[in-house]
């Protein structure tokens, strides 16, 4: 599957980007309507629908914490993964679980070009004027994680903030917006 | 790294993460610098929506939640074109919208503003851009509403927009405002945008788009981050 990045370096940009604004607290009935029990069909859910018997289904679960370590109950998380075999785009809000978890069921991505497998998360919430991008790596991929160029570009003391820990039945991935354990966010 | 830089958020236009006047940013904005990332296959692609079957009334919020009559308020029709930073159209991309009703009340259970719900108005819908990047939807003009950011804080009339483009780096969530709204001057969410970008969030009244005896027409064009108009082979 050849990929061609067609960027014409000689042309200058002509249009100014439309500014980003916060998703606000009231996205639930529009963007995650079925999860929040509103009468509007959801196009995007938190479970992959591709059925591939050779694939390894996984659950990624976590909470998002603000700068005072309180779980955030009105965030929306989107998951995007593409390893060239399986692609999945998912979405879930933290407002319906009693403990404000987000949860995704997907297929574990494969390694691309010897890099460690990962999925991308996009974080939206009231109080974020621009969304934040992070990556979820997996704790049971020690060999690939150790040689991954992105992980190795992150200061060692912060690397663990984006490695999901394998627990009984799921990978736990908590997101800290600020503080000592602040999650690594990427400019994408 | 050059590909990355060309597609980043434009700091001369975009709001910064932390904006003290918008108090919710204080505990929620990342405090450490973002890490620059060389794009991989994952970042060079994004979800495609061509297989989605939108409902026939998904782009008409004046009709998609009718229970026993028409929703109350001023009918409007919003048109626009979605392009990238080179001005190339972004075809077949999903646009999702949500908003308050004409009284300034959201259907969302968390909204406790003491203004009436409208039994015939849900306030959410969606559409796809056509092959030239154009979109259109019908709705009711949303009302202003109070919020707890500071004393006597009111949000200007606005419609929330969610867009994709063809890479996850072109993802955009924004808000469309209306021309001449006196609340814009006092709204920290709008004012957080750098001066160069603010006008771009205000729709334009357009008599040519106005449908006689039916709905006022507004134009809201959108520029997504990025330069690449050709969808990657990612299916
Ligand atoms: Fe709003």
What would you say this structure looks like, in words?
With 188 residues, chain A is mainly β. Chain A is 10% helix and 29% strand. Chain A has helices at 28-31, 142-147, 149-153, 156-159, and strands spanning 57-62, 64-65, 75-82, 87-93, 102-107, 119-125, 132-138, 163-167, 170-172, 175-176, 186-187. In chain A, the strands form 2 sheets. An 8-stranded mixed β-sheet of chain A has the order 4-3-6-7-8-9-1-5, with no helix packed on it. Chain A is globular and about 45 Å long. Chain A starts with 27 loop residues before the first helix and ends with a strand. Mean pLDDT of chain A is 92; it is low at 1-10. With 235 residues, chain B is mainly β. Chain B has one domain: Sandwich (Protocatechuate 3,4-Dioxygenase, subunit A). In chain B, 6% of the residues lie in helices and 23% in strands. Chain B is built from 3 helices and 12 strands. In chain B, the strands form 3 sheets. In chain B, strands 2, 5, 10, 11 and 12 form a 5-stranded mixed β-sheet that branches. The longest helix of chain B has 6 residues, at 2-7. Classes of the chains: A mainly beta (188), B mainly beta (235). At the A-B interface, helix 1, strand 3, strand 6 and strand 11 of A face helix 1, strand 1, strand 3, strand 9 and helix 3 of B. Strand 11 of chain A pairs parallel with strand 1 of chain B, so a sheet runs across the interface. The site of fe (ii) ion has 3 residues of chain B, from strand 8.
């Amino acid at each position: 599957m050849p990929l061609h990045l067609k960027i014409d370096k000689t042309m200058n940009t002509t249009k100014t980007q439309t500014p980003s604004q916060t998703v606000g607290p009231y996205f639930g009935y529009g963007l995650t309507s079925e999860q929040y029990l509103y009468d509007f069909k959801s196009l995007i859910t938190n479970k992959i629908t591709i059925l591939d018997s050779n694939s390894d289904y996984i659950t990624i679960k976590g909470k998002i914490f603000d700068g005072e370590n309180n779980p955030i109950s009105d965030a929306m998380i989107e998951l995007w993964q593409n390893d060239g075999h399986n692609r999945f785009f998912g979405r879930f809000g933290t407002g319906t679980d009693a403990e404000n978890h987000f949860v995704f069921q997907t297929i574990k991505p494969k390694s691309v070009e010897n890099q460690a497998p990962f999925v991308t998360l996009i974080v939206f919430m009231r109080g974020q004027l621009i969304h934040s991008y992070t990556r979820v790596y997996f704790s049971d991929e020690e060999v690939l994680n150790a040689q991954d160029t992105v992980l190795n570009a992150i200061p060692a003391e912060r690397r663990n903030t984006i490695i999901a820990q394998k627990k009984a039945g799921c990978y736990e991935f908590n997101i800290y917006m600020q503080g000592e354990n602040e999650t690594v966010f990427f400019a994408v | 790294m050059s590909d990355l830089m060309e597609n980043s958020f434009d700091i001369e236009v975009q709001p910064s993460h932390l904006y003290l006047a918008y108090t919710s940013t204080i505990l929620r904005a990342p405090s450490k610098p973002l890490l620059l990332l060389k794009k991989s296959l994952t970042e060079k692609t994004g979800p495609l929506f061509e297989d989605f079957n939108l409902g026939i009334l998904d782009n008409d919020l004046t009709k998609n939640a009718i229970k026993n009559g028409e929703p109350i308020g001023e009918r409007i029709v919003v048109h626009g074109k979605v392009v990238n930073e080179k001005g190339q159209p972004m075809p077949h991309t999903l646009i999702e919208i949500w908003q308050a009703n004409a009284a300034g009340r959201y259907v969302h259970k968390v909204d406790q503003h003491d203004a009436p719900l409208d039994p015939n108005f849900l306030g959410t819908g969606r559409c796809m851009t056509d092959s030239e990047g154009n979109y259109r939807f019908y709705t009711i003009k949303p009302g202003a509403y109070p919020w707890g950011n500071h004393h006597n804080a009111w949000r200007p009339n606005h419609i929330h927009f969610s867009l994709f483009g063809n890479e996850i780096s072109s993802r955009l969530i924004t808000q469309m405002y209306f021309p001449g709204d006196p609340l814009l001057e006092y709204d920290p969410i709008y004012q957080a945008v750098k001066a160069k970008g603010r006008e771009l969030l205000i729709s334009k009244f357009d008599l040519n788009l106005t449908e006689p005896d039916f709905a006022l027409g507004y134009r809201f064009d959108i520029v997504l981050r990025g330069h690449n108009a050709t969808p990657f082979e990612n299916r």
